[in-house]
Amino acid sequence: MATDTLKSTSSAESATGGLRRLLLDNGALSALIVLVIAMSALSGDFLTTDNLLNVGVQAAVTAILAFGVTFVIVSAGIDLSVGSVAALSATVLAWSATSHGVPVLIAVLLAVVTGIAAGLVNGFLIAYGKLPPFIATLAMLSVARGLSLVISEGSPIAFPDSVSHLGDTLGGWLPVPVLVMVVMGLLAAFVLGRTYIGRSMYAIGGNEEAARLSGLRVKKQKLAIYALSGVFAAVAGVVLAARLSSAQPQAADGYELDAIAAVVIGGASLAGGTGKASGTLIGALILAVLRNGLNLLNVSAFWQQVVIGVVIALAVLLDTLRRKAGATPVAGASQGGKRRQAVTYGLAAVVTVAIVGATSFLHNGSSSTANPKVGLSLSTLNNPFFVQIRSGAQAEAEKLGVDLTVTDAQNDASQQANQLQNFTSSSLGAIIVNPVDSDAASNSVKAADKAKIPVIAVDRGVNKASVDALVASDNVAGGELAAKTIGEKLGGKGKIVILQGQAGTSAARERAQGFTQGLKAYPGIQVVAQQPADFDRTKGLDVMSNLLQAHPDVQGVIAANDEMALGAIKALGSKAGTSVSVVGFDGTPDGLNAVKDGTLYASVAQQPSQLGKIAVDNALKALEGKKVEETIKVPVKVVTKENVAGFTG
Asked: pTM for this one?
């Protein structure tokens, strides 16, 4: 009897230990299953064919970048340059094919060669220059991004139509980016598991000195490893640009962190020696499911960053637990191990489908809210102007009984494309979009048009796509007003500097165009310097401080928004409002306070809260089938100390 009890206890402990080992060995897969089930239960819009395809598309670029980063991390390295190399490769393709008439096939090869060249430089600096991988690739991050801006002159370049098909669908439903992701994933798995260079990665990552002593040419292998990372970055850049129909010089900014996160979440160790392509794919899917689901649940973009940070920390903690528990490493597994892995994935798929199918009943028969649903995608909420647009829109939505979902693209055109895709596949009745870039938003707006969803553009238009209405002030006219204001203040003579907005954005280009046109009427005004400060107050302070060293006798400043103008005022100190006149743009609360104080001479105010209010009004009209005007212009107004008291914004 005692023996039977002992055997029973032993069997139970063995089963518990086996389950614990299974979860530790497949932590990322377990997390993905839990996420899918949770999102399916929380949102009735998650478990639809269109939305699941959206998740695949949104994971594609990160996954392709991450496959290349997997090679580097397995070999105990790091590559912080992949996002910038992706942008540079896409820019080279678009620039050579459209501006210089290079055949598209050769242009694609040039893009791939660009990625290889960047990777080789990284590898050379690390292997032969003895630079730490972090420093070498950080330097390449800056160099590649700078070259992208230099080649494109800070503006998006239209992508060749023949390559833009990479952003389309096959048969009207299967996204090409997903196919490219699968192909690149299979290639990464083949390289890691079936080639000499793949085995070398694991050897170098496990113990570089032992690998060298065993006869492995470590330096040459590192060149090849970083070159491979560059190839995958180039492919990711081309896919991303195809989705946006243009090569954006600021594209994939920060994507290197997502790629590294996907690799770590997928089970690779930053210490090197372990990692696999399937794990990386799961890591990329986890990030995509998180962002997609949190968007559908209307979670703030700021909280989304918090959640993703927690997930990354938990992934590293799981890796630590797995190592302490002696879990099976994820390096090259035996045939038996691969069979068990295949069975595990198969069982996971079956369990997921069964549970997700059951949770779908939670949403069956549930009555939808009587309130109309509208989505608002803003280019950024890290700027008071757009915060005011949101406030105006939310106040009007509450007044009219509209359920308003607001998302923040964080000045990332591809992230905004993802958000618009989510809006289109969910149960929203209308969409309001404030484009990061007018060209990049076109494909997403076309998809909404195809789905018969009304689209209202606010503040900036959408090129090459049809919107029901554009609610905006005229950025070019506003720029001309700013130039006229500074020209009249200086009596038509003097030296000025111009602080430009973020390179590649529509607002920056249009306002700069207005400045240029307006200053033509004042030939005595000399523009001694023009520098971008990215619509940011801190950068405005830094750039203005630097310009004052070269031009201490400057008499005027035009800034493309109030935030940069306020930074310039800080740099000018006592000169602001006395010997130097500063003109801003937007009419934000802080800007108007500076006008009252006299440090900011004037602000070209756009009444952003009115833009948000009118956009919601017209979205509701379009949703109800009522006629809306194609263009609704909200007048801009020069606000100075004389009239600021009567301006309400």
From this structure: 0.79
